[in-house]
């Protein structure tokens, strides 16, 4: 059986700290399994750097070299996916990037780089110091430092100079109100980047990949909602609708 005749397996790729969030991607996995798909969550590390996780993904993809895959990648997991796939012959049907940044996260730049202006509230300054200690304690400092920049992120140039033999779809988002996971960061972003649309972690403009099939979502979606949901977003049906509306949901075989 050729790879094109095989059923398509869905691979979910988490972003920074994803596995530390209760229920992260689990309802999405269950939903697509109930629809009849094979679904796995990629074996990346929640505190892993781009290079570390790209290497782990590359090894996984080599083991799956005879499996037709559709990859749904959230946040920096999209960077790791595309870096891992450079030069590979894995039969990938398509890659979907959601909220995948090309530049860094303003809040992490504040926490780890002490960029100006500093938080106006003493409480917020103490909170950022506590976050830096906490993220360092769980081993995520190096991964956070990669994202703590206004510059182009590591690997972006390599991705943009690579010709991928499969379609890549990119989606950016914005949110004016945010779920509990994101709310702490969102106010700080407004201080650092006043008036700039963002999803509570990354600026919307920094999620735009002109190289790929790109679309900005026309409804509010913060950075945590696609993976853990909220009162306004049921993440499993969000993903199904996103794939159906853009005609990229594979057939169940």
Question: Would you kindly provide a written description of the structure presented here, covering whatever features stand out?
Answer:
This protein has 253 residues and is of the alpha/beta class. The longest helix has 16 residues, at 122-137. It has one domain (3-102, 155-189, 197-245): Alpha/Beta hydrolase fold, catalytic domain (Rossmann fold, 3-Layer(aba) Sandwich), CATH 3.40.50.1820. 41% of the residues are buried. Strands 2-1-3-4-5-6 form a 6-stranded parallel sheet, sandwiched between helices. It has helices at residues 26-34, 50-63, 76-85, 106-113, 122-137, 141-147, 156-160, 180-192, 225-228, 235-245, and strands spanning 9-13, 39-41, 69-74, 92-98, 168-174, 213-220. Helices cover 38% and strands 14% of the residues. Helix 1 crosses helix 10 (235-245).
Throw out a few tags for this protein:
single chain; Rossmann fold; six-stranded parallel beta sheet; 38% helix; alpha/beta; 14% strand; 253 residues
Which structural class do the helices and strands define? Answer: alpha/beta
The radius of gyration computed from the alpha-carbon positions, rounded to a whole number of angstroms, is: 18 Å
How many separate structural domains?
Answer: 1
Low-confidence stretches at least 5 residues in length (pLDDT < 50)?
none
| Share of β-strand residues | 5-15%
Number of helices: 10
Mean pLDDT score: 92
CATH architecture: 3-Layer(aba) Sandwich
């Amino acid at each position: 059986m050729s790879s094109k005749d095989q059923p398509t397996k869905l691979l979910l790729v988490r972003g920074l700290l994803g596995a530390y969030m209760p229920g992260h991607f689990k309802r999405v996995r269950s939903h697509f399994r109930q629809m009849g798909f094979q679904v796995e969550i990629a074996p990346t590390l929640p505190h892993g750097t781009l290079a570390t996780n790209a290497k782990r993904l590359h090894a996984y993809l080599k083991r799956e070299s005879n499996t037709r895959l559709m990859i749904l990648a959230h946040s920096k997991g999209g960077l790791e996916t595309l870096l891992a796939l450079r030069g590979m012959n894995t039969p990938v049907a398509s890659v979907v990037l959601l909220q995948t940044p090309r530049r860094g996260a303003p809040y992490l730049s504040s926490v780890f780089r002490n960029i100006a202006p500093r938080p106006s509230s003493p409480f917020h300054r103490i909170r950022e110091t506590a976050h830096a200690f906490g993220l360092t304690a769980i081993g995520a400092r190096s991964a956070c430092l990669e994202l703590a920049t206004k510059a182009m992120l590591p690997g972006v140039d390599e991705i943009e100079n690579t010709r991928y033999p499969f379609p890549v779809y990119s989606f950016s988002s914005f949110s004016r109100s945010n779920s509990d996971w994101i709310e702490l960061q969102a106010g700080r972003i407004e201080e650092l980047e006043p008036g700039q649309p963002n999803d509570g972690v990354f600026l919307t403009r920094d999620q735009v990949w002109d190289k790929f099939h790109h679309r900005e979502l026309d409804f509010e979606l913060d950075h945590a909602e696609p993976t853990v949901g909220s009162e306004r977003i049921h993440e499993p049906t969000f993903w199904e609708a996103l794939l159906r509306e853009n005609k990229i949901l594979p057939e169940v075989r």
